[in-house]
Amino acid sequence: MGHAIRREDALVLAHYYAPDAVQASADFVGDSFALAQKAVASDKPVIVFCGVSFMGESAKILCPEKEVYLPVPSAHCAMAEMASEEEILHMRETVEDLAVVTYVNSSARLKALSDVIVTSSNAVKVVSLLKEKNIYFIPDKNLGHYVAAQLPEKKFYFGKGFCPIHNATSEKEVAVARAAHPEALLLVHPECPAAVCAQAAYVGSTAGIIAFAERSDAREFLIGTEEGTLYELSRRCPDKKFYPTRPGFVCADMKKITPEALERVFAGEGTPVEVAPELAQKAAHALRRMLELAQ
């Protein structure tokens, strides 16, 4: 059990996939990269991270001097453990000049085994700056293939992981959505399969999708990512229309994070996020390398 927290002592961060009411009450809403930057830059002694467990772990790793809370510690990312130490060691032993590049949607354990972390916002830039020719990209195979297509000078090896929600997006689903909204531009997250990404007017992170829609002259958009993103899209572009590519494009774990759960943290019912020191030190190296390369 934690202790009561004064609101003025805390920075409340919310991911775009959190419920609308949670996003509305946060100090800052963003994607994983922007939220990591905000956590590091904050002078508040407490961070309340309205996201899944790997996000809270990452904030604690980058800010060990701060108290970090997750409103719902049991909210997890299904992809975060979709790689193993054995697989990583095998690749290091069999492939020379190799960098293990790990998507931020991963556990602290996987981050600690990595050379650098990336987000969907910065993966292409970070990997392009690595001196190693060979890249082992884990855990998300779809994001890995998206990055590889833009960096033909590198040789990629891919993990087997994926986001169950994004990976379920299909060409048929897109065709049905397009038939219903023929004037809409398709904007998708690179966690979607390559066949879906190939049809999109824009492929990028949640923050990138929002920025594209904001500056586009188009008036209607099909959104191929978690429907929580529609809140910020509608807030920034009230004169435009947004449609998810399918009904129920939802991460159930992110939706566990309610305003009531957030209030329980401030009432002292939260448990601070902890990461074992040795694990945190190794993971911090990979995370900070990302922040340096992605500036």
Description:
It is a single chain. This protein has three domains: 93 residues, 3-Layer(aba) Sandwich (Rossmann fold), CATH 3.40.50.10800; 79 residues, 3-Layer(aba) Sandwich (Rossmann fold); 87 residues, Rossmann fold, CATH 3.40.50.10800. It is 41% helix and 17% strand. The protein contains 14 helices and twelve strands. Strands 2-1-3-4 form a four-stranded parallel sheet. Strands 6-5-7-8 form a four-stranded parallel sheet, sandwiched between helices. Strand 5, helix 5 and strand 6 form a beta-alpha-beta unit. The protein starts with 9 loop residues before the first strand and ends with a helix.
Question: Helix content range of the residues, please?
Answer: 40-55%
Radius of gyration: 19 Å
Spatial ordering of strands, largest sheet: 2-1-3-4
Q: How far from one another are the termini?
A: 37 Å
CATH superfamily of the largest domain: NadA-like
SSE arrangement:
Elements: E1 10-15, H1 20-25, E2 28-30, H2 32-41, E3 46-50, H3 53-62, E4 67-69, H4 85-94, E5 98-103, H5 108-112, E6 116-118, H6 123-128, E7 134-138, H7 141-150, E8 155-158, H8 164-167, H9 171-180, E9 185-188, H10 194-197, E10 202-203, H11 206-215, E11 220-224, H12 229-236, E12 241-244, H13 259-269, H14 277-293
Parallel strand pairs: 1-2, 1-3, 3-4, 5-6, 5-7, 7-8, 9-10, 9-11, 11-12
Helix pairs in contact: 2-3, 3-14, 11-12
